């Protein structure tokens, strides 16, 4: 796994902390952007009912539970910046789960764009090029581990 610089860690921690304790609304912003960028992803979140619109999906209790889980993964990554390697098995398993439900690895890049959009939207003038790069660096580490799990699951699934 790649390493983050001390400055990256500081920027990420400070920006994450500034989002406050209730991060779910920020997650809703992130997923709203995700569905704008790739409306086809909405079909992965149908649960037991077919959502007519992204707004229907975004307000469903099942989806808000998913948003909470995603924000907890980000929180875990931020909390473990000094030892992201400790999350590798967890992130690989997460990649396997995403592969099993039909998520393509290309979607990880769109999620990354949506994450950056949410940070820019939520942080306003505090969002800088250095902050963006720090988050990109962290996200690339997370995605590398998830992609590894995704690939391993795909190889087992094709046997």
What features would you describe in this structure?
By secondary structure, the chain is mainly α. Helix content is 70%, strand content 0%. Helix 5 crosses helix 7. The relative contact order is 0.19.
How is the secondary structure organized here?
Elements: H1 6-18, H2 24-37, H3 54-58, H4 61-79, H5 88-100, H6 106-123, H7 129-157
Helix pairs in contact: 1-7, 2-4, 2-6, 5-7, 6-7
Question: Quick summary of this structure?
Answer:
The protein is mostly helical and 159 residues long.
- What fraction, in percent, of the residue positions are helical? 55-70%
Give a short account of the largest sheet.
Answer: none
What does the overall shape look like? Answer: globular
Radius of gyration: 16 Å
Computed structural class: mainly alpha
Distance linking N and C termini: 28 Å
Instruction: Please indicate the percent range of residues in DSSP E strands (runs of 2 or more).
Output: under 5%
Low-confidence stretches: none
Order of helices and strands: HHHHHHH
| Number of helical stretches of at least 4 residues | 7
Task: Average the pLDDT over all residues and give the rounded result.
Answer: 89
Query: What is the count of β-strands?
Result: 0
